[in-house]
Design brief:
Elements: H1 19-37, H2 41-54, H3 59-71, H4 75-88, H5 93-105, H6 109-122, H7 127-139, H8 143-156, H9 161-173, H10 177-190, H11 195-207, H12 211-224, H13 229-241, H14 245-266
Length: 267
Amino acid sequence: MSFKKLLFLALAVAAPASVSAQATAEQIFNRALVRIEQKDYDGAIKDLSTVIDMMPTAESAVVNRGLAKWYKRDLAGALDDYDIAAEMTPTDPDVYLNRGLVYRDLHDADKAAADFSRAIQLAPDRFDPYYQRALLRMENKDANGATADLTKAIEIDPRDANALFFRGQLRASLGKYDEAIADYTALLAIDPKRTDALNNRGNANFNKKNYAGAIPDYDKAIELAPNRANYYLNRSKAYRKLGKLTQAAADEKSAAQLIQQQRNSSK
């Protein structure tokens, strides 16, 4: 999944307990977080279950156990934990954000959207809920809704390259080529070596019939990623529009060779 987050929350202890018991629970909790980082999800789940047995109101332990279950693809188990966490702390936006991701993995788009929207209500200045709802809307072919969410996400974090890339794609799909070019240009100022952004900006110029303007982006994309056949094919189309048939034929030949190499290597 594109969004994965460890919830490094302080261990919440609301139930009466001895100082030594609290200290022991916190040690186990911190060890569980380390195990999540080390991808020892079974060990983390065991530790967090121990913490929950000791401190049933430790919401952060429930949330992180749900996270560990999510990482190991126990989606039903993760959902159970996030449901419990939502009952314990119904104003925690991270609970709804993470549960929304589980619902998305379970292909329940309506419940995922509802949780992302709830996270936005609780934390309207957070980047992640807008971004995740945008990805969900993209999956459901809601280009306008996804664009609106990405626009809000970019307002919060103008330097997020993936948000700029996806909004550029959406704008291009809506025929808004100048706006798409602006997004790819902003992205390339952050990461000049993003060949997918170079290629897509070239495509946007091509669709504007600015064939000469598309060539430099295809050139740079090919320079950085010389094994991408589609970059040669895209440049060949621009060359043909410009009447440069020799260059177009050379690119088509290069693309054909790369495609054949890929077929041979997959056998």
